[in-house]
Automatic annotation (TrEMBL):
GO terms for molecular function: DNA binding. It comes from Mesorhizobium alhagi CCNWXJ12-2. It holds the Pfam family Xre-like-HTH. The lineage of its organism: Bacteria, Pseudomonadati, Pseudomonadota, Alphaproteobacteria, Hyphomicrobiales. It comes from the Bacteria. Residues 26-85 form the Antitoxin Xre-like helix-turn-helix domain. This is Uncharacterized protein. InterPro entries: Antitox_Xre (IPR011979), Xre-like_HTH (IPR046847), Xre/MbcA/ParS-like_toxin-bd (IPR024467). Residues 90-140 form the Antitoxin Xre/MbcA/ParS-like toxin-binding domain.
Length: 143
C-alpha cells in the first residue's frame, strides 16, 4: 500500500475511491474540502480519550461552522492530512497504536524536548523533523 493510500485510510476516505489514494487525487480531495468526519476520525485515532483534541486542529467555533458545510477548508485539510501522514508512519514504526501515541505525546530530546504532536500541528517543517526521527527509528539510525 502506498503512503497516499495509508493517509486516505487514516482520513477515512472510502477504500473504493482509488482517485483519493493517488498523490494528485488526495491533493484534490484536500483542496475541495475533506469531510468534517475525517477530522473526527483522526482526532479519535490519536487521542481517543480527549474530546477536545480536534480543536487543536480546527478551533471550536470554526468546527461548529464547518459542521454545517460538512467540509474542511484547504488549510485545515492540509494540516489534518499532515497529521494523518505522520500517524501512519508512527504506526508503521511502532506496530501498536498505544506505542505510537506514547511517542507522539511524550517530549523528545531531538526536538528540544517538545512533544512530536505539537511540532506536527505547528508546521510542515516540524512534521518533517518528526518524520526524520521516525525514519531513524524504522531504518536503524539514532533517534
Amino acid at each position: 500500500m502506498t503512503a497516499f493510500a495509508n493517509v486516505a485510510d487514516v482520513l477515512g476516505l472510502p477504500p473504493k475511491d482509488t482517485a483519493a489514494r493517488s498523490p494528485f487525487g488526495l491533493i484534490s480531495q484536500i483542496e475541495h474540502g475533506l469531510p468534517v468526519e475525517a477530522l473526527e476520525r483522526v482526532a479519535h485515532l490519536l487521542a481517543p480519550g480527549n474530546a477536545q483534541f480536534k480543536y487543536r486542529l480546527v478551533p471550536k467555533a470554526t468546527f461548529e461552522r464547518r459542521k454545517g458545510s460538512r467540509r474542511l477548508s484547504s488549510d485545515e485539510g492540509t494540516r489534518l492530512a499532515r497529521l494523518a501522514r505522520v500517524w501512519s508512519l508512527a504506526l508503521a514504526v511502532w506496530k501498536d497504536a498505544d506505542d505510537a501515541r506514547e511517542f507522539l505525546f511524550r517530549p523528545h530530546p531531538m526536538i528540544e524536548d517538545r512533544r512530536p504532536i505539537d511540532v506536527i500541528i505547528q508546521s510542515e517543517f516540524g512534521a518533517e523533523m518528526v518524520v526524520d526521527i521516525l525514519h531513524g527509528l524504522k531504518y536503524g539510525s539514532a533517534a
